[in-house]
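mind reviewing both lines:
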Amino acid sequence: MNTNNTQHNVIDSSNNIIHKEFPSLWEQIKEDFTTPQLKDPAFNHFLELFLNYPGLIAIVHYRIAHRFYRKGFKLLARLIMGWTQFITNIDIHPAAYIGRRVFIDHGIGVVIGETTQIGNDVTIYQGVSLGGVSLERTKRHPTILHNAIIGAGAKVLGDIVIGEHAKIGSNSVVIKDVPDQSTAVGIPARVINKEDKQEKNEKPTRTKLPDVDQSMFEYMLCRIKILEDILTNMPDDNTKCKDFLRKRSDELSTKEKELGKAYEEFLQALHKRDKTNS
């Protein structure tokens, strides 16, 4: 499919996508019908589009209702989308802007608010809410830029921007902008890859506790190995035997001191952490 005319990441001061292309309604619907086979590996037959893809049905109905809404037939547009909500369990306001090749997978429980702006090639999974947090009659819903992925159950709330190629984790609650090429997860969502890079460059503020269990395990393995060497290589001569055992005993003593030091550091770190928390 030719996607060379995909619009660039351009939004205005009100977080609205600046529309540089207005394909015909028929062209948009044709693209919508080809999108599931490109984005869903479970797709097998054309007839499935009418029975197993409520997201597709909702998008097609939205395309028609949106044209009516723009022409001023707002009540008719709302009636179309009301019927669509009844048969698909997907609630899309006809005033929202949805770009080309947007794929709503599974679809049950998806809500797309009135002032939502969605770019091209966006994927939205079931249970997603693109909602508002204000009663003002202004831009109050999110802007989703091109190629973003919104995971199942995610709530993206308010007049915020989700960047190009951004990914929103399942069941996350997003209330702040997410940069391009980023992944946001959690409640409230945080941008994990951006913050991880930041953490690598910053001086650690948390006390790192030594792994005493690992140190003990390594010590026991070392002790077993030394004892096996003693039994295998024990000299017959009594004088040599004493020197051999003394040397091996020194190795064991060194390992015990290392383990004791690790344990002491562990206790000090615990004390420091408890003092900080209190």
